[in-house]
Write a structure and sequence with these properties.
The complex is a heterodimer of chains A (about 120) and B (about 375). With about 120 residues, chain A is of the alpha+beta class. Chain A has four helices and ten strands. Chain B is α+β, with helices and mostly antiparallel strands and about 375 residues long.
C-alpha cells in the first residue's frame, strides 16, 4: 500500500524495502522533467531530508525522503530517460529504494485516499 | 506587483481554451506552455512552425521632423543610416553606457520609426524616449492597439505561402513589408527570437484572435508559450533583457562589439570607451542538470570568476547550457573548464561559443 507526503512524494514498503518517487500530480506540475539527481547507494537519510532533485525545463524541485533509511538502489533508467517520471511517475519512474526503514514512520504520512483529497482541494484553487 | 491586475493580450481566452498554463510575466498573464508541454513545443518550432503570442511587447511609433536624428542619438546603433524597409536590433542607452532596453527598430519612412521593445521596460522606455526627443517629434504608444504573433520555424514561410502570400512577396531577413493576410492589412517582418526562419506579424488588437486561429487551422502549426520561447532563444544564444543584460551592462560587455560603431556619437558612448569589466560567455554543461540565473561561476582552480545569467536543459542538444558574465581578466577561450554553483562539487562545464545550437534556419535564403 502506498503512502504519500504533503510534498507529493510516494512510498511503498514491501519486505522491508521502501520504493520512493514523486506523484503524478507533482510530475504534471513540474512539466517536462529533464534531469533527476539520483542518491548514492549506501547514503543514509532521515525522514524529510532532501534525497533527490528533480529538474524540469521550468524549475528544480527538491525531493524529500518519505521515510528514514539507507539507499540500496536507484533507478538508473532515469539518467538517460528522466521523462519516465512524467510518463510513469508511480511505477517505472521510481527514484530509489531504501533499506533499514522504520515502518512506524508511515504513520506520519497520508494514505492514498487522504492524498487524493488533498490534491483535489489544491486543484480547486 | 502584488494585487496588481495583470494585463491581458487579445489571445488570453484562446490560450485558456487550448489548455495553456498561464503565468504572470512582466505584468501580463501569458501562456507558459500548452497541453503538450515545453519540450514538444520546442521541438516543433525547430522542425515545423509554431505561433507565439507576443502581444505583450511594447510598440512605440516615432514620427515627425527630427525623428531620425533624435532617435539616432539615443541608440547604440545608428537608426538614421538604416534604410526604410529594414529592421535593426538595437540598444536604448543610458548616459553611463548601460542598456535601458534591447529592441528592434523598424524604419517605416524617412521620419517614421516603429520601436518594439520588452514588456518589462515598457513604461520606462516610453517616458525616457518622450523626454529625450525634441518636442516636434511625436511618440505614440501602440502597445495595446496592435497585437503581435510570432510565426517561427523552418516551415513558417510555407505556412504563409499556403495562406496566400507568394514567396516573392515575403520580406527578406530583417526586413518588413505591409501585406494582406486573411483579408487583413498587416505588418510582417522576417525577425524572431528562436534562431529559426520566422516572421513577426503585427495585427490590429481586436483582429488578433482571428488571425491566430486562421494560422492554427494549418495542421502543421502549433501554439508555443514562453517556456519554449526561452529554451529556443537560449540555444540560439540570444540574450534576454533583465536577465542577460541590464542598465549596468554595456552592449560591448554583452558581446555586441562588432555591431556598435564607436566612431559615431550617441548617448553613453564616452562611457563605452572605458574598458569593459565583464564578458558575456556561453557555457556548455557536461550533464543534463541546468545552471540557473545567479549561480556562481568558478574557474578550474576555484577562483570565483562570474555569475550565471540564464540556464536551461537544451532540448535540441541533449545537455544543459548557460550564459554568464565572467570578469574580463579571466580566461574565456573556448574549452576553458568552469564549475557552476560550487567550488567543490559544482556542475562541470566549459566555455562554449554562441550560439549553442548551430543548425538554426533563421538566415536561410528563401528564393
Amino acid at each position: 500500500m502506498k503512502h504519500y507526503t504533503e510534498e507529493h512524494e510516494w512510498v511503498e514498503v514491501e519486505d522491508g524495502v521502501a520504493t520512493i518517487g514523486i506523484t503524478g500530480y507533482a510530475a504534471h506540475e513540474l512539466g517536462d522533467i529533464t534531469f533527476v539527481e539520483l542518491p548514492e547507494n549506501g547514503s543514509g537519510y532521515g525522514q524529510g531530508d532532501v534525497i533527490s532533485v528533480v529538474e524540469s525545463v521550468k524549475a528544480a524541485s527538491d525531493v524529500f525522503a518519505p521515510l528514514s533509511g539507507r539507499v540500496i538502489a536507484s533507478n538508473r533508467m532515469l539518467a538517460d530517460r528522466p521523462e519516465l517520471v512524467n510518463e510513469s511517475p508511480e511505477e517505472d519512474g521510481w527514484i530509489c529504494r531504501l533499506g533499514e526503514v522504520d515502518e512506524s514512520e508511515l504513520d506520519n504520512l497520508m494514505t492514498e485516499a487522504e492524498y487524493r483529497q488533498m490534491v483535489s482541494d489544491l486543484s480547486k484553487d | 506587483m502584488l494585487n496588481q491586475t495583470l494585463l491581458e493580450t487579445p489571445l488570453k481566452n484562446d490560450h485558456i481554451g487550448r489548455g495553456a498554463r498561464m503565468v504572470s510575466f512582466a505584468g501580463w498573464t501569458m501562456p507558459l506552455h500548452y497541453a503538450g508541454g515545453i519540450l514538444a513545443e520546442h521541438h516543433h518550432t525547430r522542425s515545423g512552425a509554431s505561433v507565439f503570442d507576443t502581444s505583450h511587447m511594447s510598440q512605440f511609433r516615432i514620427t515627425g521632423s527630427g525623428s531620425a536624428s533624435g532617435l539616432d542619438r539615443l541608440m547604440a546603433r545608428s537608426t538614421e543610416s538604416q534604410p526604410p524597409g529594414t529592421c535593426r536590433y538595437n540598444f536604448l542607452m543610458n548616459a553611463a553606457g548601460g542598456i535601458r532596453d534591447d529592441l528592434v527598430v523598424y524604419r517605416m519612412a524617412e521620419q517614421e520609426y516603429l520601436i518594439v521593445g520588452n514588456a518589462g521596460t515598457h513604461r520606462s522606455d516610453l517616458a525616457w524616449i518622450q523626454d529625450s526627443l525634441p518636442d516636434a517629434v511625436k511618440v505614440r504608444d501602440e502597445s495595446m492597439e496592435t497585437g503581435k504573433i510570432d510565426l517561427q520555424g523552418p516551415e513558417s514561410a510555407e505556412v504563409l505561402n499556403l495562406a496566400g502570400l507568394k514567396p516573392a512577396t515575403l520580406p527578406a531577413y530583417f526586413r518588413w513589408r505591409r501585406l494582406t493576410l486573411f483579408g487583413e492589412n498587416v505588418l510582417i517582418s522576417r525577425t524572431g527570437y528562436t534562431g529559426e526562419l520566422g516572421f513577426e506579424v503585427y495585427v490590429p488588437w481586436v483582429r488578433t484572435p482571428e488571425i491566430w486561429e486562421r494560422l492554427l487551422e494549418n495542421p502543421g502549426v502549433q501554439p508555443a508559450g514562453l517556456g519554449a520561447r526561452d529554451t529556443l532563444r537560449l540555444e540560439a544564444g540570444l540574450p534576454l533583457y533583465g536577465q542577460d543584460m541590464d542598465e549596468d551592462t554595456t552592449p560591448l560587455e554583452a558581446g555586441f562589439e562588432t555591431l556598435v560603431d564607436m566612431d559615431r556619437s550617441f548617448l553613453g558612448r564616452e562611457a563605452l570607451v572605458v574598458q569593459a569589466r565583464k564578458r558575456f560567455v556561453g557555457i556548455r554543461l557536461e550533464g543534463r542538470r541546468a545552471g540557473r540565473h545567479g549561480m556562481a561561476v568558478f574557474s578550474e582552480d576555484g577562483e570565483r570568476i562570474g555569475t550565471v545569467t540564464s540556464g536551461c536543459f537544451a532540448p535540441s542538444l541533449g545537455y544543459a547550457v548557460a550564459t554568464a558574465y565572467i570578469v574580463k581578466h579571466s580566461a574565456s577561450s573556448e574549452g576553458t573548464p568552469v564549475l557552476l554553483n560550487s567550488r567543490e562539487n559544482g556542475l562541470p562545464g566549459h566555455i562554449s561559443k554562441l550560439p549553442f545550437y548551430e543548425s538554426g534556419t533563421a538566415r536561410i535564403k528563401l528564393l
